[in-house]
From TrEMBL:
This is MAGUK p55 subfamily member 7-like. Residues 44-101 form the L27 domain. Belongs to the MAGUK family. The lineage of its organism: Eukaryota, Metazoa, Chordata, Craniata, Vertebrata. Keywords: SH3 domain. InterPro entries: GK/Ca_channel_bsu (IPR008145), Guanylate_kin-like_dom (IPR008144), Guanylate_kinase_CS (IPR020590), L27_C (IPR014775), L27_dom (IPR004172), L27_dom_sf (IPR036892), MAGUK (IPR050716), P-loop_NTPase (IPR027417). It comes from Poecilia reticulata. Pfam families: Guanylate_kin, L27, PDZ, SH3_2.
């Protein structure tokens, strides 16, 4: 090689190197390298493990924040499949839970006589030791029933095959190909005491519906439990998990436990949906005002039924009245307060023969037939059912009797009763007070009768105590077609003085249905029973049978707060019993 050639080569090399180093891509690679080097030293730790669900919740919330350009841009960005995949990858790295797997043990390995029972367990690689450990045992599944495998146990061998250095994914085929009994070699993860203390015996009533098939965030749809508002769930494990609990639904027959959203998780979801709820609330019509009625049921039925007059709920008459000054609400109304409804702790209650009857609270939109049902109950068994006699400050009329139609009291006496919190519900109409008084309710109950009370649901809180143990029945209108059909001949009182009656109009039906929807969405968590009042005879029979059931020795689930002064320690951590009503 000549010197000139050598020189030329060097020249070319130099040019090549120069052009390569000037390449933009190479510069970017250097930058990435430097950045990675810096992060290597800092060892960043993920701040959270649910970035993907957080982003989808954020996207949902952004929908309610107008359509500004920045919002639009952010929404487009977090909705992109690449971005979503990135977050999902981030989450699995954050959890170091790269390959979670449901352990498909054959049923007969654990439970010979229950072939239908599915094994329930998940395994994962322990991030610090690299060992394969049992992550979750589904209560009621084969693994749980065998009593041999527990959460935190380390799996060493399956059928003699060592699991060392194996990934969870590699263990599944080992189980799949095993026939008959499966042998595990296990190192127990916790002591027996620790294990039993993990299984809580807390029962809750769900205050919302949950359908895992519609929940994109549930870790495993098959392992989740669906429930409806009002269902009683036994919380069998919270596993220190603030997102998913394990629970079994009472009465579903399987005894299998599965995942349900934790109180915290549901609260977070409700909080994110709140803008929508608040938006809806602006349309809510004002609720309760006193509207007395003087229908003479004694003349109609031959039985004197004290207190069976127009309820103190705001009638359709009042909500339409264009004279708001005439009607003034006095009691402090907490109607608009919204608290996320999650779960309420409940305990079993067995009614003893010496116990008083539970208070029956009937609620429903105006005109739905609450009074009608009350009246039918009292007439059917006047010695068993009673209604409380309301209080008023107005003058007694000639045909009225003290203590039968009303308790006629002075304004001063009435206001003292208000100050002493003796009213479940009260208000003022044309300069006179009217109210449903706790003493009246207590008197009916002391007579050994079933007291029927008709209040706006926002007032239930005044009787939500162990003394009254209210059983709340929501009387719901049927679909509009059935309303038209069943109320063809029905008349209702349509003026403030209860002197005029008229037929129901299409608008009345629509308003009744709207009100029912609003009551259900705002107070549905308080309802023990929903009765659709289509055919009144059917509704009455259903109501009567339901109320009679409360006297049977069957277990009734009542709020734990009624039966003890303070919530259990175990539950205190996962539920606040205040502020939900
Ligand atoms: N299922 C039904 N079928 C036909 N008519 C009914 C039915 N239920 C109630 N009614 C009639 O509808 C009218 C209104 O019923 P009711 O007075 O019981 O309503 P309400 O819910 O108590 O209303 P308010 O809150 O205004 O007092 C009455 O004439 C009653 O007889």
């Amino acid at each position: 090689m000549s010197a000139t050639e050598f020189h030329t080569d060097r020249e070319e090399d130099y040019r090549f190197l120069h052009s390569m180093l000037m390449e933009k891509k190479v510069h970017l690679l250097f930058k990435i390298h430097e950045r990675l080097k810096r992060f290597e030293k800092r060892r960043p730790v993920p701040v959270q493990q649910h970035a993907a669900s957080l982003a989808s919740q954020l996207a949902e919330e952004l929908l309610y924040h107008g359509w500004r350009d920045e919002v639009k841009e952010l929404l487009t960005l977090i909705s992109k499949p690449h971005f979503k995949s990135l977050l999902r990858t981030h989450d699995s790295v954050a959890k170091r839970d790269f390959e979670p797997a449901l352990l498909p043990l054959p049923d007969d390995a654990m439970e010979e006589d229950e072939e239908s029972v599915k094994i329930g367990a998940t395994i994962k690689k322990d991030k610090s030791t690299g060992a394969i450990v049992v992550a979750r045992i589904m209560r009621g599944g084969s693994a749980d029933k065998s009593g041999l495998i527990h959460e935190g146990d380390e799996l060493k061998e399956v059928n003699g095959v060592s699991l060392e250095h194996r990934k969870p994914k590699e263990i599944l085929p080992l189980l799949a190909c095993s026939e008959g009994a499966v042998k595990f070699k296990i190192i127990p993860g916790s002591t027996k005491e620790e294990m039993t203390s993990r299984v809580t015996k807390v029962f809750v009533r769900a205050l919302f519906d949950y359908d895992p098939t519609e929940d994109p965030t549930v870790p495993c749809k098959d392992a989740a439990v669906a429930f409806k508002r009002g269902d009683v769930l036994q919380i069998v494990g919270t596993d220190d998990d603030d997102t998913w609990w394990q629970a079994r639904r009472l009465g579903d027959g399987s005894g299998r436990a599965g995942l349900v959203p934790s109180k915290q998780l549901h609260e977070r979801r409700v909080a994110l949906q709140r803008p929508r709820a608040l938006f809806k609330l602006h349309n809510v019509k004002p609720p309760v005002f006193p509207v007395p009625e003087d229908v003479d049921y004694r003349a109609i039925t031959g039985i004197h039924i004290a207190g069976l007059r127009r309820s103190f709920r705001l009638g359709r008459k009042s909500s339409r009245a264009k004279k708001p000054a005439q009607l003034r609400r006095w009691s402090s109304e907490t109607h608009g307060a919204i608290c996320p409804r999650t779960y309420i702790e409940v305990v079993p209650y067995h009614k003893e023969p010496k116990d008083r009857h539970r208070l029956i609270v009937l609620v429903g939109p105006s005109g739905v037939g609450v009074n009608e049902l009350k009246r039918r109950l009292v007439i059917s068994e006047p010695d068993r059912y009673g209604v409380s006699v309301p209080y008023t400050t107005r003058e007694k009329r000639r045909q009225e009797s003290e203590g039968l139609d009303y308790h006629f009291v002075s304004v001063q006496a009435f206001e003292e009763l208000i100050l002493n919190h003796r009213f479940v519900e009260y208000g003022e109409y044309r300069g006179n007070y009217y109210g449903s008084n706790l003493d009246s309710v207590q008197r009916v109950m002391a007579e050994g009768k079933v007291c029927l009370l008709d209040v706006h649901p926002s007032k239930i809180k005044h009787v939500y105590t162990s003394e009254f143990k209210p059983y709340v029945v929501f009387v719901k209108p049927p679909r509009i077609e059935e309303l038209r059909l069943t109320r063809r001949r029905a008349k209702f009182v349509c003026d403030e003085d209860s002197t005029q009656v008229r037929m129901f109009s299409e608008e009345d039906f629509e308003e009744m249905l709207d009100q029912a929807e609003m009551l259900d969405s705002q107070y549905g968590h308080l309802f023990d029973k929903v009765i659709v009042n289509g055919d009144v005879a059917v509704a009455f029979r259903e109501l009567k049978a339901d109320v009679e059931k409360l006297d049977e020795p069957e277990v009734q689930w009542v709020p734990a707060a009624w039966m003890r002064s303070a919530p259990t320690k175990a539950w205190r951590s996962c539920s606040s019993l205040t502020g939900w009503i």
